[in-house]
Amino acid sequence: MMKTIKRIGVVLKEGCDIDGGQHAMEVLSQSVQLDTVIEVNQALIKSQDPLYLDAVVDLNTRLNQEVRKTKESGYFPLVFGGDHALAIGSISAVAQESHAILWIDAHGDCNTVESSDSKRIHGMPLAVLQGYGHKDLLKLVKQKIDSDNIMLIGIRSLDIEEEKLMKEWGVHWITMNEIRKQGIDWLNEQVNRFIQDKKHLHVSFDCDSMDPSLFPGVNTPVSDGFKPYEILPLIKHVLNHPGISSMDIVEFNPTRDQGSTLELIKTLNQMVIETIEV
Ligand SMILES: [Mn+2]
């Protein structure tokens, strides 16, 4: 059955507190038509709170409602960011029993407030979605995601305490080192095996999963990321999965870009059109 996409833009940098990301939707909206844009309520920003907790919780509450409404109306939610903290709102809105997540990222995003060195919420969304983290963030999570139903790929920067938590919870992740050693066919097999029996599947694509020498327009670059030919065919394949529910494309920082990261986002948008709207 044909589905129509609804594109939700999220203006958010408070989850990482790195300048530039707040302009992502201004730049993106010149080439991708956004159906709605959600912004941080500036009145809730308290400079003494490094987490910007009130602002991030409020934004995610409104994003959750928007994504929920989108799903209920039969549309496919495609969320553009904005930093990865927005995944708390977008995924909690679609999560149902046995929902699976494919998380494409350089980082684990499985920190809690205690484990995190940076104390930034964009490093915590995947922990929160599993039911671990600050109680104000957990209020958004009505249906926890089973750690078994999470696969991260492209990983090359985990905090020590974060890695311990990921092991303890039983999250499955594939590092870039393993991918370099085993090859792209092996990666495709691993992801295929993960998605094959899943009923509901969300894809969260962090632009920093890509190689920053090719795609510098991100908040927290880590060297040796994916080349387009290594990951785009896999994403296309995953978007064809019958249980695909929704997707995020996050961490675009246009002030660090030279045009290529914007082009990548446009390519992904086109890929979603070609796979979902058919
Ligand atoms: Mn991330």
Q: What does this entry look like structurally?
A:
The protein has 10 helices and 8 strands. It has an 8-stranded parallel beta sheet, sandwiched between helices. It has 278 residues and is an alpha/beta fold. It has a single domain, classed as Arginase, Chain A (3-Layer(aba) Sandwich), CATH 3.40.800.10. 36% of the residues lie in helices and 17% in strands. It binds manganese (II) ion. Manganese (II) ion binds next to loops.
Q: Cofactors and ligands present?
A: manganese (II) ion
Question: Which class best fits the helix and strand makeup?
Answer: alpha/beta
Name given to the CATH homologous superfamily: Ureohydrolase domain
Question: How many beta strands in the DSSP annotation?
Answer: 8
Order of helical and strand elements: EHEHEHEHHEHEHHEHEH
Helix content: 25-40%
Q: Which spans have pLDDT < 50 for at least 5 consecutive residues?
A: none
CATH architecture: 3-Layer(aba) Sandwich
The first-level CATH class is given as Alpha Beta
| Total of domains | 1
Query: Would you tell me the overall average pLDDT?
Result: 97
| Estimated share of beta-strand residues | 15-25%
